[in-house]
Structures are given as structure tokens and as C-alpha cells.
């Protein structure tokens, strides 16, 4: 069965989100698009960060992807949820570290600061990099203690 991944954006991330959803399908994942379904310049990032973070927090899915202009509003909102480790990522190297060292379970992309090609490359790296565990496991566990 293909992995389900919740995906959301605000107006600033809308175009990139459409590309991310299409790419996830192409790669064999099952993206659950929480919206927006159409561009609404007046929408608010928490309305889309919350359903994604909630699904990851409750274990409905293992991973989520969010995008807004700077990536900050999405990160702030998602990281309020227990067990969510939302990583604001702007390069493939940071994507790799966010998985290897931090076991990030939500990828946040700053749509105004990465190109579409960079966003997709970051997505690939993030999806395919495994958590290293070991000393990083101890550190990740301490976040919730
Ligand atoms: C929307 O203009 C913008 O503030 C939002 O996408 C995001 O950058 C917030 O952190």
C-alpha cells in the first residue's frame, strides 16, 4: 500500500503545493491534499497547517508537507502539536539533516525562497533519507520530556 502524506499550503504556497502533490503521486505516494483547492489570496496558513499537523500528531499518517511564503507560519503552527517535528527546509542538505539528525516528520518549504525545481529536489531528499537514530534518538526524545 502506498504511504499517505498530508499536504497543505496557504496562498503563497499554493502553486508549489500543486507541484508537490503531483510529484508525490508520480513517486507512488498517496497525497492527501487538505487545500486550498483554489488560490485565495486572503487565506490563512494556520487553517492548512492544523489538519496536517493534527494528522501527524495523532499518527493518522507518518509524514506531512506544508508550504507558505517564508515557511515560518506553517512551522510555528505545526510545531505546537505533540510529536510533530516540522522542519523549515531551504536546501537538499538541510532536508537530509532534518531527517538524519532530527527525524523531521513534517517538511515545510518556503515557497518564496525556493524555486519549483529546488522544492522538488528537497522533497525527494527528504522523502528518501532515513533517520540515523543512535545519539540523535536520545536528543529527539528529550524534546518531548
Ligand atoms: C503570506 O503573505 C505570508 O505571510 C505567509 O505565507 C507566510 O510567509 C507566513 O509565515
Features:
5-stranded parallel β-sheet, binds D-ribose, 5 strands, Ribose 5-phosphate Isomerase B, Chain: A, globular, alpha/beta, 145 residues
Would you mind describing this structure in some detail?
The chain is an alpha/beta fold and 145 residues long. The protein has one domain: Sugar-phosphate isomerase, RpiB/LacA/LacB (Ribose 5-phosphate Isomerase B, Chain: A, 3-Layer(aba) Sandwich), CATH 3.40.1400. It contains six helices and five strands, in the order E-H-E-H-E-H-E-H-E-H-H. It has a five-stranded parallel β-sheet, sandwiched between helices. Helix 1 packs across helix 5, helix 2 packs parallel to helix 3 and helix 4 runs parallel beside helix 5. The longest helix has 13 residues. The chain starts with a strand and ends with a helix. 37% of the residues are buried. D-ribose binds next to helix 3.
Fold blueprint:
Layout: E1 4-9, H1 14-26, E2 30-33, H2 46-57, E3 63-68, H3 72-78, E4 86-88, H4 92-100, E5 106-110, H5 116-128, H6 135-143
Parallel strand pairs: 1-2, 1-3, 3-5, 4-5
Helix pairs in contact: 1-5, 2-3, 4-5
What is the element string, with H for helices and E for strands?
Answer: EHEHEHEHEHH
Oligomeric composition of the shown chains? single chain
What is the radius of gyration computed over CA atoms, rounded to a whole number of angstroms?
14 Å
Question: What is the annotated CATH architecture?
Answer: 3-Layer(aba) Sandwich
How would you name the CATH homologous superfamily?
Sugar-phosphate isomerase, RpiB/LacA/LacB
Q: Extract low-pLDDT stretches.
A: none
Instruction: List the ligand species.
Output: D-ribose
Helix content: 40-55%
By CATH, the topology is Ribose 5-phosphate Isomerase B, Chain: A
Largest sheet, if any?
A: 5 strands, parallel
What's the total number of strands? 5
Classified by CATH, the class is Alpha Beta
Please indicate the count of domains: 1
Mean model confidence by pLDDT:
98
The secondary-structure class comes to alpha/beta
- Strand order in the largest sheet: 2-1-3-5-4
Query: Any idea what the shape is?
Result: globular
Counted by DSSP, the helix tally is 6
Q: What separation lies between the terminal Cα atoms?
A: 34 Å
